[in-house]
Amino acid sequence: MSGSSDNNILFTVQDALGYNSWSFVQPIGKTLVCAYSRGKAHSISETCRGVYARRSLDGGLTWQEETTVINTATHCESAIGKGLDLDGALLLWVRCVGSPWHHDLYRSADGCSFERIATLQPNPMPMQITDVFHIGDGVLMSLWFAGNYRDTAENSWGTLTSQDNGCTWSQLTVEQGLSKAEWPTEPSCVPLGDGRLLAIARMENCGPEVKCSQFQLESEDNGRTWRKFRTKIDDVRESTPSLVWDAETGLLSNYYFQRGAGALKRRIAELSHIWNHPEAWSAPEIVCYASANAHHAGNVNACAFGDRHACTFYSGDEHQTDVMLVLS
């Protein structure tokens, strides 16, 4: 454990030898569970990469022994999304890169033992399926995006929904044939009630000639149709966002790791101010600092935990990265 800015507390979840990365955090009651993957490099196709989890019973201070979720010799497995099912058990999406490419969904009631409850091969095949959330009437939803990161109009995104607690899923494509400049990736979505959903997604083609921004996605009919905006948030090159919604205060917290600067940042806004007004996000505040090695730190994933927010990310260099967690 080490100190962070203001009253934030930074913990090390896993520093085993290797590339510990792409982590997700989810409470099950008072138990905090962090799932992540480990390989040897920043690669989604190395067959040595598997998915693991650790849990903390004391709010992140200490972490129990590592549990192997899945690590096969034929596929590269990576954790790609988390959430809760209708009974309050942890759901964990795992991307399985190999032959054939597929996505598995695992369930755990305790954060230690994991059971695979679904295997998906959607069309389009998602690059990633993101966090699970509830939209009412017993329906679970995740967003997905599919594409190849080239400057060609062959990218898409949409939703997956389940009406049987995660066992089967139906795919909806919202947009397809997108150029990289118009392609929202790695979205984080929160349900706001009354059919409203709000998501923040990253932009893939920013650089010297194209200014970075985040996409803001809004739906008023539980994901059947969407509006897409660009925000003015520009310190987000190749930065995965994560949203936390507080219904009591009406505040949205937008977390992201500014790669290259080594800073985990947060922007807070009232829902009433930013709904249909993506330019109204506040200035950023620094949550904590970590590695400034541009491609070997980042990918924040956040959740509410008691009266605080828990955020996990990875930090290191091309040889060694660690899974970190900060309570803010």
Please, could you describe this protein's structure?
The protein has 328 residues and is mostly beta strands. 1% of the residues lie in helices and 53% in strands. The chain has a five-stranded antiparallel sheet with strand order 1-2-26-25-24, with no helix packed on it. Strands 11, 12, 13, 14 and 15 form a five-stranded antiparallel sheet that branches. The longest helix has 4 residues, at 271-274. The model has no long low-confidence stretch (mean pLDDT 95).
Write out key terms for the chains shown.
328 residues; Neuraminidase; 5-stranded antiparallel β-sheet; 26 strands
Helix-strand blueprint:
Elements: E1 2-3, E2 9-14, E3 19-28, E4 31-39, E5 50-56, E6 67-70, E7 76-84, E8 90-97, E9 102-108, E10 115-120, E11 128-129, E12 133-134, E13 140-146, E14 155-162, E15 170-178, E16 185-193, E17 196-202, E18 214-219, E19 227-230, E20 242-246, E21 251-258, E22 263-270, H1 271-274, E23 285-289, E24 297-305, E25 308-316, E26 321-327
Antiparallel strand pairs: 1-2, 2-26, 3-4, 4-5, 5-6, 7-8, 8-9, 9-10, 11-13, 12-13, 13-14, 14-15, 16-17, 17-18, 18-19, 20-21, 21-22, 22-23, 24-25, 25-26
Question: Based on helices, strands and strand pairing, what is the structural class?
Answer: mainly beta
Structurally, how many domains make up the residues? 1
Q: What low-confidence regions span 5 or more consecutive residues with pLDDT below 50?
A: none
**Biggest sheet, spatial arrangement of strands:** 1-2-26-25-24
Tell me the CATH architecture. 6 Propeller
Q: Assign the CATH class.
A: Mainly Beta
Strand content: over 45%
Mind telling me the C-alpha Rg? 18 Å
Characterize the main sheet: 5 strands, antiparallel
